[in-house]
Amino acid sequence: MLDEKDIKSLPGSLVSWVYEVKERTKPDKVYWCDGSDEENAELNNLLTNEGKWIKLNEKEYENCYLYRTQRDDVARVEDRTLICTENAEEAGPTNRWMKKEKAFKMMWGLFDGVMRGKTMYIIPYLMGPENSDFSQVGIEITDSAYVVLNMRILTRMGQVAVKEIGKKKKYVRALHSTGDLSIKNRYICHFPDELLLMSINTEYGGNAILSKKPHALRIASVAARDEGWLAEHMFLLEVSDKKRKNKYYISGALPSASGKTNLAMIKPPSNFNEFEARTVGDDISWLFVGKGGELRGINPENGFFGVAYGTGPSSNPNILESLKKNTIFTNVALNPKNNTPWWEGLSEPTELLYDWTGTEWHTGNGKEAAHKNSRFTTPLKQYKFKSKSYEDPNGVELSIMLFGGRRSSLIPLVYEAKTFEQGILLGAMTRAETTAAQSASTGIVRSDPMSMLAFCGYNMGDYFKHWFDVADKVKNPPKVFNVNWFRKDEKGNYIWPGFGENFRVLKWMIDRVDKKVNAIELPIGFIPNIKDLDLKGLNIRKEKIEELFYFDKQGWLKELNEVKVFFKKFEKNLPSKLWYEFDKMYKSVQEY
Ligand code: GTP
Ligand code: SPV
Ligand code: MN
To answer: What CATH code is assigned to 232-302+389-591?
Structure first.
């Protein structure tokens, strides 16, 4: 636990807030987290004794635990995620809004006495590398030891954060309680003007681990707007080319459960051995314009909160070793014979398992054993293929930025924006199928600009304008691409093999950056000459590849009309530059 000296070194306003929360929530005990190993062991014991933590086989999964959340609390709840400001226009047409005063009243009502009989944990945390101008600090108060243990992996928490809080002008206050987990009163409220978060009656990742989407995207995006940078739902990947003796940093936005972690951990196919891919971040990037006018990025996180379901030797071999120690598994299945975790895609299942709810499961019963949004929480530090630069206080310089989403038709495997400004349009017009990462129906195509629909803390019309403002300051912008790994054939099968094979597409992007290859110009941007895509060793027919790049003029006009309907929602907040880019593309498709 932090001692009195550490607590005294914190800003007085912060400490008073902690005591105010204590008075209102009435916990039995107060515990200031220091992030030490002893503290970790204590919390592990506590949860184990309460029967909530299943300690996994120590030989195979050293210091690993399994946790099951309540059945109806397994994903982000977008209709319960509120932006609370003075007026609705600040939140914009894509966010759920509540007037600030009303939300305060409602939330303090729900928090009244909510921690009775419980321990209130106070977690100072740092987002981003130590000693970085780009990093931010916060303090989360929670009554969930599970949240503490996740924050411990995903952020730099405890003592190290206390030191950083002293150096920063601002800090985010985050308050969470598991409450009684009732859906009726489940809310995740964001008060960007107050740098305040309040979340109750949920324990699921992105709803309760408030450093993550609530701070690092929704609150940070507002700070980014005011301070001239970007807080994005993007992975950050380092690709080294030993032959060219060059490094390329790639950031990419794909919607939730649509391949960021997998791409950030990509293992190039065996015939690409002059390349090495390493992860800087897998979910969130903060991007800044550097002194030379370059776009730079940092990963504010310190670990991965990845989708377990589907993770295995064929999709993401690189991560598997990392999951063998110091990892939390949430809502995966359990093999009761040897106490190991299991999920679809990991291996062949044994005859008997306990599914993610703890119910007996037998092979061939046609049901899923792990939840589709089951997750692993694992430290970045122990990941074998991490890039050293994740700790660089100055971040990395981007040469490539990509956007994309799940689309079973129309959108090509890859295409390149003609300019950075057109790249902003590509991001803004992203439409993608929904996934199990949010509690609503899956597989529905919706607009998800820059994969930020659920994460932009202010009016998205202004957000688009902000992107153009940042672009004005960038002298040597990254090349922008759009990708789609998810095209399906008539039978409903994916046409492109995806995962490691996606490296073939990244390689083409690198060749474009280095001006090694030409491309074919379409109204929407550039697509590759198929001969320039290295498909050696890939068992896929040429016609299939051609299909992935077929330009369907009528389909695109329909697509752009849908985009237009979406853009119109923002009325006067939509920047003229975006309309200009849009009209240019529309006209050029019409004339094609
Ligand atoms: P969040 O953590 O929710 O933001 O998700 P993410 O964008 O990091 O997605 P992740 O990499 O965890 O992948 C989610 C799902 O997409 C998994 O079930 C993967 O198996 C699947 N997936 C990822 N990459 C590919 C790909 O290239 N092709 C196909 N077909 N599926 C993929
Ligand atoms: C996502 O849904 O985009 C995630 C998981 O990365 S969560 O942290 O729950 O938002
Ligand atoms: Mn995500």
So the answer is: 3.90.228.20
Q: What is the pLDDT of residue 286?
A: 98
Nearest to 548 by CA among 494, 586, 591: 494
| 140, 210 Cβ separation under 8 angstroms | yes
Q: Which two tokens stand for residue 475?
A: 């002298």
Measured in Å, residue 251 CA sits from the centre of ligand 3 at 13
Give CA angle at 500 (498, 502), nearest 5°: 55
- As to burial, measured by CB atoms within 10 angstroms (0-12 exposed, 13-18 middle, 19+ buried), residue 2 is buried
Q: What is the share, in percent, of the chain residues with pLDDT greater than 90?
A: 97
Q: Two tokens at 30?
A: 């107060």
Helices (H) and strands (E) in the chain, counts: 17, 31
Domain 304-382 sits in CATH at: 2.170.8.10
Q: Write out pLDDT tens, residues 171-217.
A: 999 999 999 999 999 999 999 999 999 999 999 999 999 999 999 99
With contact defined as beta carbons under 8 Å apart, do 358 and 365 qualify?
A: no
Three-class secondary structure of residue 19 per DSSP: helix
Non-local (6+) Cβ contacts of 86 within 8 A are 99, 100, 193
Q: Where are the domains of the chain?
A: 4-52+76-227, 232-302+389-591, 304-382
Is 258 a catalytic site residue? yes
Mutate to test the pocket of ligand 1, among 256, 282, 307 (most ligand atoms within 8 A of CB): 307
For ligand 2, whether the C-beta of 213 sits within 6 Å is: yes
Q: Residue 303: CB within 6 Å of ligand 2?
A: no
Looking at the CA of 233, name the nearest ligand: 3
The CATH number of 4-52+76-227 is: 3.40.449.10
Number of other residues whose CB lies within 10 A of the CB of residue 475: 11
| Active-site hit among 132, 177, 199, 258 | 258
- pTM above 0.70? yes
**What 3-state DSSP class applies to 570?**
coil
Q: Which residues line ligand 1 (CB under 6 A)?
A: 254, 256-262, 282-283, 306-307, 309-310, 315, 437, 485-486, 494, 498-499, 502
Ligand 1: which of 217, 237, 261, 282 to mutate, judged by most atoms within 8 Å of the beta carbon?
Answer: 261
